[in-house]
Design a protein that fits this description.
Layout (H helix, E strand, L loop, with lengths): L1 E10 L2 E11 L4 E6 L5 H8 L6 E7 L2 E2 L5 H6 L2 E4 L11 H7 L7 H14 L1 H5 L10 H13 L5 E5 L7 H16 L3 E5 L3 H7 L2 E6 L2 E6 L1 H5 L2 H7 L3
Parallel strand pairs: 3-8, 3-9, 6-7, 7-8
Antiparallel strand pairs: 1-2, 1-4, 4-5, 9-10
Bound molecules: adenosine-5'-triphosphate (ATP).
Adenosine-5'-triphosphate (ATP) binds next to strand 2 and helix 1.
GO molecular function: ATP binding; ATP hydrolysis activity; branched-chain amino acid transmembrane transporter activity
Keywords: Amino-acid transport, ATP-binding, Nucleotide-binding, Transport
InterPro entries: AAA+_ATPase (IPR003593), ABC_branched_ATPase_LivF/BraG (IPR030660), ABC_transporter-like_ATP-bd (IPR003439), ABC_transporter-like_CS (IPR017871), BCAA_Transport_ATP-bd_LivF (IPR052156), P-loop_NTPase (IPR027417)
């Protein structure tokens, strides 16, 4: 299980995360929803080791990831698919994917994971020699997810994977999240599409200005009048 205990994040004088605690049990999909600036990305980036000024505990099994480098965290099985995709436009699809495996040396294992990623995303296989920058927005999102999966993580954290995608592609992204989870990956999902996220999530947390204000099973929060009012358009 991944567990955050009393996490605080500061950016200079800004106290962005004010003591949040949450649990992501193995094999589950957990989502964080909340308005812009609530601290969702900061939470994921803290777990990934990308935020300097973080305090509290980030338990992963017996370990506390606070103070670990991003590379060590990836090696421990926790990967981040960042907001805005951050693919390399001049590299081919396959080169982008292989970068996700940079911490691994087991060549046959890397090939097996690559085959699995291509099975999950047949369109990436068709375009494996195409430059990343020539892909559509939806395909770039798939590439970013595929790249994160290439490190063979136990937990994959996804920051706004459906952002800016057409409705059909949004559905595709959420189907993929369920498929990945069905194949044993634990998912920590940050989404602005609260409706879709709550539908797939086993458990959900609502973040407001750096604090958790509500939590419960995803389906239960879908029916919560406070969530309906604030995040589901009434
Ligand atoms: P969004 O959906 O807009 O990304 P979010 O819920 O993910 O929002 P964060 O990006 O974590 O929220 O931001 C939380 C707070 O921390 C905001 O007030 C934001 O302005 C601030 N913040 C985030 N990153 C930095 C940074 N690098 N430097 C200074 N302030 C930051």
């Amino acid at each position: 299980m991944l567990e955050i205990r009393d996490l605080h994040v500061h950016y200079g004088g800004i106290h962005a995360i004010k003591g949040i605690s949450l649990q992501v049990p193995r094999g589950k999909i957990v989502t964080l929803i909340g308005a812009n600036g609530a601290g969702k990305s900061s939470t994921l980036r803290s777990v990934a080791g990308l935020v300097k000024d973080r305090k509290g505990q980030i338990r992963w099994g017996e370990a506390d990831l606070i103070g670990w480098t991003p590379e060590r965290i990836v090696r421990a099985g926790v990967a981040l698919c960042p907001e805005g995709r951050r693919i390399f436009p001049q590299l081919t699809v396959q080169e982008n994917l292989m970068l996700g495996a940079y911490i691994r040396c087991d060549v046959p294992g890397i090939q097996t994971t690559l085959d699995w990623v291509y099975e999950l995303f047949p369109r990436l296989k068709e375009r494996s020699w195409q430059k990343g920058g020539t892909l559509s927005g939806g395909e770039q999102q798939m590439l970013a997810l595929g790249r994160a999966l290439m490190s063979k993580p136990d937990v994959i954290m996804m920051d706004e994977p459906s952002l800016g995608l057409a409705p059909l592609l949004v559905k595709e992204v959420f189907d993929i999240i369920e498929t990945i989870n069905g194949q044993g990956k634990t998912v920590l999902l940050v989404e602005q599409n609260a409706f879709a996220a709550l539908k797939v999530a086993h458990y959900a947390y609502v973040l407001e200005v750096g604090q958790i204000v509500l939590e419960g099973p995803g389906r239960q929060l879908l029916d919560d009048p406070r969530v309906k009012e604030a995040y589901l358009g009434g």
